[in-house]
Write a structure and sequence with these properties.
Chain lengths: 165, 464
């Protein structure tokens, strides 16, 4: 990171990311988004608007969907964080990721990690969502390419395939 | 200019007293941050009024919802998701629950807090008109102690509040005094989620013998602070709702607001829309009044029937004799909400054999033949309930028929789903999922579906 103009102290902040315990030395007000990308090189989490409007930086904290651009690092201390990198395992895509591929739900890809995490959060609560529930679940995630229909279809398909289980 | 994190301090005491003693230092130098949905936006833009922040996110003292006989106290740190999920808030303060659902997208609802929304004091915040009509009170706490203030006077100007330096909102108190009120909320914005309102109405009305004896109207986005439409309320109260009164109220509401022109909308548009949403509410209140009058008449007649006749009349709503008898024994039931909550209690406590009897009174989904045991009324309602599902193509129909057979083989009873409003593909997806259930979980799901069917049928019965 840059040099500090006033030299306030950095803190030791620890959390679990995708099942792995991590400890970082950062300013408490650093955005979780920046910590994930710059300190931990987890660049799957994207910055879109930087003000909680677009959902590109979505991650799960203790199972809850949040915008990581609005979380100061200190507030994540002790948390269990899941990012897009935590979904596939042993070289196999999670069912939601596969459904996005199969349904053509990704185009430029910037919104896709956030879309998938918001969808995962939705399916955990509502395993077989209706179209209306999918629209609501993804209402905080913006996509400039697809027109959304393929994304909605991918989430419905993942639900049918049992992605939440 | 973008903020640099090195220029900011952030601490996170573990208890409320520790936060309050910090806030008491340096006369307001410390800025509280809860879920960050407003503060972090200002921070990133370099617009925060202070460089010393204290986290109050997830403090247990601020995240409780306490219910007493008289009121509900909602901790200021409760999120919009907490509010949406809370049963008492949904039942008794539906305007707050719907405003919570309109606030931001899901991720922001998981972090945005009711206290933060109040202190941020945006004139466009969707939950604030609801707090106005429920006449909320705020508990303000500081190192010196606690005080209780009416929410109505809390906003003293554009983004200015009564909060003193060192003070926090601890809880929002709502009195439980609105049973029997008709509640209505309407947000006018470019889209539902993540869109800032052009006009947002929260309204409560109560009718006695056809006359409006109480009315509370509050709107957001049409003045520097959320406001009650006091003049419009005065014009309507004590009168019967008719087209002339609605015209008067519409004009008064449009006159009363003080909207601005901004990038989202113009002042004349906002004033006109305020009049329209008020008129729409009054029309609905009137219809609701006529309907609840009608329900009361149906129930008054039913309350006076012999037990045998009363049970016979209500039987088609659920299809099990034990339920019909138990409902009959609970008479007198005076209004719709008493009837519906009696239904839920009776249904929940029936033995499994009675649940099965209710399931058997329905035709299979996609099947036009009602079972021989079903009453004519039950068969007619089944037809209405499955109307939407009946318009599917042959392949979907065949898949549902095959699913029904597999279900009956696995669970030894027919598949029950509350079909009202559901399309055939929706039902097929539900059927396929529930086929994977274990027996005990599936029985509970089927019972819940039957409960929903009974609720809808009771409402139809009351509107006859």
């Amino acid at each position: 990171m840059n040099e500090s103009p006033q030299g306030r102290a950095k803190s030791e902040i620890s959390f679990t990311v995708n099942g792995k315990l991590e400890s970082v030395h950062v300013y408490p007000m650093e955005r979780l988004l920046d910590v994930l990308r710059h300190e931990l090189a987890l660049t799957g989490t994207k910055e879109g608007c930087g003000e909680g409007e677009c959902g590109s930086c979505s991650v799960l904290i203790d199972g809850t969907l949040v915008n990581s651009c609005l979380i100061p690092a200190l507030q994540a201390h002790g948390a269990k964080i899941i990012t897009i990198e935590g979904l596939a395992s042993d070289g196999r895509l999670q069912l939601l990721q596969q459904s996005f591929l199969d349904c053509g739900a990704a185009q430029c890809g910037i919104c896709t990690p956030g879309m998938i995490l918001a969808s995962l959060y939705l399916l955990k609560k509502t395993p077989q969502p209706t179209l209306e529930e999918i629209r609501e679940g993804l209402s905080g995630n913006l996509c400039r390419c697809t027109g959304y229909m393929q994304i909605f279809e991918a989430v419905a398909e993942a639900g049918r395939r049992g992605a939440a289980t | 200019m973008r903020a640099h994190p090195a220029e900011y301090e952030l601490v996170a005491p573990r208890t409320l007293p520790a936060v309050l003693s910090l806030l008491a230092q340096d006369s307001g130098a410390w800025l509280p941050i809860a879920g960050g949905t407003d503060v972090m936006v200002q921070y990133s833009a370099g617009k925060l009024p202070s460089r010393k922040l204290v986290s109050i996110w997830n403090l247990p003292e601020l995240r409780r919802i306490e219910i007493s006989a008289r009121e509900i106290q909602i901790g200021a740190g409760c999120t919009y998701t907490d509010l949406r999920a809370h049963e008492t808030i949904n039942r008794e303060f539906p305007l707050l629950a719907s405003a919570a659902a309109w606030t931001g997208g899901i991720a922001n609802q998981n972090r945005g807090t009711i206290g933060g929304n109040i202190v941020n004091a945006s004139p466009a915040a969707d939950s604030l008109p609801a707090l106005m009509v429920y006449e909320a009170e705020l508990l303000l706490v500081s190192a010196q102690g606690e005080r209780r203030v009416p929410y109505a006077n809390f906003h003293i100007g554009y983004r200015k509040t009564q909060l003193a330096p060192g003070e926090l909102i601890r809880a929002v108190c709502l009195k439980k005094q609105f049973s029997g009120y008709y509640a209505h909320a309407h947000k006018v914005g470019a889209r539902n989620a993540q869109a800032i309102s052009k006009v947002c109405l929260a309204a409560l009305g109560h009718l006695a013998a056809g006359v409006v004896d109480d009315l509370r109207l509050a709107v957001g986005s049409v003045a520097p602070v959320p406001m009650r439409l006091a003049e419009t309320e005065r014009i309507v109260k004590g009168n019967r709702i008719d087209p002339h009164l609605i015209q008067l109220a519409k004009a008064a509401a449009a006159r009363e607001v003080r909207p601005i022109d901004d990038i989202r909308s113009t002042s004349p548009y906002r004033a006109a829309v305020t009049g329209n949403v008020v008129a729409e509410f009054l029309e609905q209140l009137n219809t609701h009044g006529a309907r609840s009058e009608n329900s009361k008449n149906v129930l008054a007649r039913w309350n006076d029937l012999s037990s045998e006749k009363a049970a016979e009349e209500i039987l088609p709503c659920c299809g099990t004799k034990a339920w019909a008898l138990a409902m009959t024994n609970r008479r007198p039931l005076l209004d719709e909400s008493a009837l519906l909550s009696a239904c839920d209690e009776v249904w929940k406590n029936l033995p499994e054999s009675d649940w099965i009897e209710a399931f058997r009174s329905h035709p299979r989904i996609g099947d036009s033949h009602a079972p021989a045991s079903a009453t004519a009324q039950s068969a007619a309602w089944s037809g209405e309930e499955q109307r939407k599902a009946g318009t599917a193509g042959d392949d979907i129909k065949a898949a549902i028929a095959a699913g029904n057979r597999a279900y009956e083989e696995k669970f030894n009873r027919i598949f029950i789903v509350c079909a009202t409003g559901k399309s055939a593909p929706d039902i097929l997806a539900i059927l396929e999922r529930r086929l994977r259930n274990e027996e005990a979980a599936e029985l509970q799901e089927a019972a819940e579906q039957q409960r929903q069917i009974a609720q809808l049928r009771l409402k139809k019965w009351l509107s006859k």
